[in-house]
Design a protein that fits this description.
alpha+beta; about 55% helix; disordered N terminus
Length: about 425
């Protein structure tokens, strides 16, 4: 009794055609080009999509450094009992921290420079639990925000536009003014710059100023009220589900939003770019895969007599078709395997490959001053690799259908007439 069954003769013949030395070396050359094309296309897809995943993660991290996963805002922009709201929100599944905040418009003035800004009142020890400003502080510290000190922390671009640094004094103008006999007079307060942060998002670096919550309450005449509560979750991707849960279970009138809504345009743009890059680079794989068509057409022409002999020995049209499908599929699989290996190695070692290329060529491919990122980000995802492999194999398989069908239509009598 045989321990191992012999493989189907179609597979054996297809594999033999791959390994056999051909009289026509051009066919072998085209087969090799097809394999290399598929390998390079697959590797390019894996590396590019990994880089785009890395950018998406980097972008998400920078945005979530200044915003929270979920934000609860009072209906009229004010909330009187934020501790109660925070306790109820913390009972929601996945919520790990909460922090009160005040968010208002303001205008900063220093000398002849004036800039509009978004003013956020925070309590640093609470804010640390829902955001991550501290790792992005360039100078100064959040600890300078103490009640009554009227200290302010500015984004890097905002501080540059105002021409101020730590220790300088600036004037914050609140739009909520006081009514006087001569009209409404805006409220002004002098603040001392206590720190400067840089998260790498121009929107935040150029338009956000942080002050102490109690100082914001005094400046904007909010007594003990706040604008709302910011929440942090154990899984940021659960934010939409948690927001929906709070809408139905918070029990207090409020506006509830999550980070996927507040910056939906950023992530939608990145996703569209990723999809378009996948389609464009898939065309490279398609061109290489359809080189298999020309390879198999030439093989069929070269093997007409072999096909005729197989038909006379009893092989049917389906078996002949299977032989050449196997041959074309093996070309695609070999190229696919090498492409996946090359792509995975490249995507996981970009931090070594890019500096090496820069040293060899003597050029800078990645400028931190432009992108605010020291290294090219890369995040390899198994799902992307699986999709790329599946699409590439499918294209390779489709490319074999016409030549294989053509081989199955060979007439033995016609093929052997002049042999």
């Amino acid at each position: 009794m045989k321990l191992f069954a012999e493989p189907p003769f179609e597979l054996a013949i297809g594999w033999r055609y791959i390994l056999a030395k051909r009289r026509n070396h051009f066919i072998s050359f085209i087969s090799l080009i097809s394999m290399l094309g598929i390998a390079l296309g697959v590797a390019a897809l894996i590396i590019v999509l990994s880089v785009m995943n890395g950018f998406q993660t980097e972008l998400r991290g920078r945005i979530l450094a200044v915003i929270s996963h979920v934000q609860i805002t009072g209906v009229d922009g004010e909330m009187s009992d934020w501790e109660k709201v925070a306790r109820r929100a913390s009972s929601a599944p996945g919520v790990v921290a909460s922090a009160p905040y005040i968010q208002e418009q303001g205008m900063l003035s220093s000398g002849a420079s004036v800039r509009g800004t978004l003013v956020r009142g925070i309590v640093p020890e609470f804010e640390d639990t829902v955001a991550s400003f501290r790792p992005h502080m360039r100078v100064g510290t959040l600890d300078s925000l103490v009640p009554g000190a009227f200290s302010i922390v500015l984004g890097n671009e905002l501080a540059r536009a105002l021409g101020v640094s730590v220790g300088d004094r600036i004037t914050l103008i609140a739009p909520q003014g006081a009514v006087t006999p001569v009209g409404i007079v805006p409220r002004l307060k002098t603040f001392t710059v206590g720190g400067i942060f840089e998260v790498g998002m121009f929107e935040s670096d150029s338009g956000l100023a942080l002050i102490r919550l109690e100082d914001a309450q005094k400046l904007y005449r909010m007594d003990d009220r706040v604008s709302g509560v910011r929440l942090k979750l154990d899984d940021l991707f659960r934010a939409p589900a948690v927001a929906r849960y709070l809408v139905h279970n918070l029990g207090i009138p409020a506006y509830i939003s999550d980070w996927t809504r507040s910056h939906v345009n950023f992530f939608r743009a990145v996703q569209i770019e990723k999809n378009m890059m996948f389609i464009i680079l898939s065309l490279i794989v398609a061109v290489a895969a359809f080189n298999i068509v020309s390879t198999l057409v030439m093989v069929v022409t070269d093997k007409r007599s072999d096909i005729a002999i197989l038909r006379t020995l009893g092989a049917n049209s389906k078996s002949i078709m299977t032989v050449f499908i196997v041959q074309g599929a093996l070309i695609g699989v070999v190229g696919l395997v090498f492409g996946v290996i090359l792509g995975v190695v490249g995507a996981t070692n970009l931090d070594v490959i890019v500096p090496f290329i820069e040293r060899v060529l003597g050029v800078s491919l990645w400028s931190r001053e432009i992108y605010f990122i020291s290294n090219l980000p890369s995040e390899l995802q198994c799902g992307d690799v699986s999709i790329i492999a599946g699409v590439s194999f499918t294209l390779s398989l489709v490319a074999t259908l016409y030549p294989s069908w053509s081989a199955s239509r060979v007439n033995p009598a016609e093929a052997l007439r002049y042999e």
